[in-house]
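PROTOCOL LOG
Step 1. Enter all chains and additional molecules of the complex.
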Amino acid sequence: MSDDHQHHHDHDAPLPDTVLRVKALESLLVEKGLVDPATLDVLIDTYENKVGPRNGARVVARAWVDDAYRRRLLDDATKAIAEFGFMGRQSEHMVVLENTPKQHNMVVCTLCSCYPWAVLGLPPVWYKSAPYRARAVMDPRGVLREFGVELDPDVEIRVWDSTAEIRYLVLPRRPDGSEGMDEAALAELVTRDSMIGVGLARSPGAA
Amino acid sequence: MNGAHDLGGMHGFGPIEREVDEPVFHAEWERRCFAITVAAGFLGRWNIDMSRYARERMEPGEYLRSSYYEHWLHGLQILLVEQGLLTEDEIAARMAELAAERGG
Amino acid sequence: MKALKAQDVEHALRNSRGARVDADIPAKFQRGDRVLTRNMHPAGHTRLPRYARARHGTIAHDYGVFIFPDSHAAGEGPHPQHLYSVRFAASELWGPQAAGQDGIYLDLWDDYLDAVPDAAQ
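Step 2. Run joint prediction.
Step 3. Record the structure below.
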């Protein structure tokens, strides 16, 4: 218990009074009619079960098979993404960044954890934590290497620090060998990490 | 502000630790913390910029030692108290009651 | 002041207004302009990180008019102004050892930026 303050990372137990404080705030807020308990359940269900990276994967797969959609997505991402009904909080101003053979995009929020919730859900712990936030802007190649990605040295890396309300979604390159696959199958190849820009889309037949 | 949250370019944090098949929330308290923060935000007593600033004001050592939703919790309490919706005393009192109930 | 009802959550989340402001405010800069970020150290909220202060960049895109977080966080109003994507060469931020072709893009408002006179570029 006494070591909690010494050496504390995201996967360790919370600080001792954290759980109590959350319970206290929730009970006071509910008591005073400031929050509705049923609302809390809907909020949790929405982000735990309903919204997630499968949304973004569908957008990417559509862009891969439908060039007119891809152009709409690059021209006005908010509107094109809304064609799927994906929209709203923390995705009001979307921009899609297309990876090419010569250009690789990576997204970070060094100052907090800004992330396109409507297409990717809530961010993973690593995205919100100090190591990624500190290094992504300074050593993107080192970060990619840690994620198992080695790019050609002549590829230009663009790192996007989400300092405003613009939310970025990377359009990863369509993998070789995926020709002829239908949209649903293609969406399966699109990983969350590839849409943040720390990974590539999976190859068909890969694990 | 020049707080601990302004992390771009800092050295010394070590590898980017990743969890396979990471769940959205790691504990019930995280779920509740997320939900009460978002729900309280809909009261319209603060904007997103105020909420970020509230989190940024954590003492730097505490910020770096604590987890993401602990930052949210810290910020939420600041906002609720600053906006006069709750007082520090009633929060402390409720925590003491809950601790006593729990026998802890 | 009433609690948000459960049946209104989905609508509230999906129809979030965002930060764009419908106001005809002139932009200080345009795409291609060279800019120098301010050496500013406010005690209040800002979205100009320390690593990008007093650095030369290039306007990559004008996103239009948005709420300015520094004033908004202080309860001083939205102070709407143009928001730009600004590209910084990696070497400009991290020194000559950084990969020459790489760029770091930050979204920055008019009030964070000053013009760079042509002669000084």
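Step 4. Note key features.
Chain A touches chain B through 56 residues (CB under 8 Å).
Residues 1-9 of chain A have pLDDT under 50 and may be disordered.
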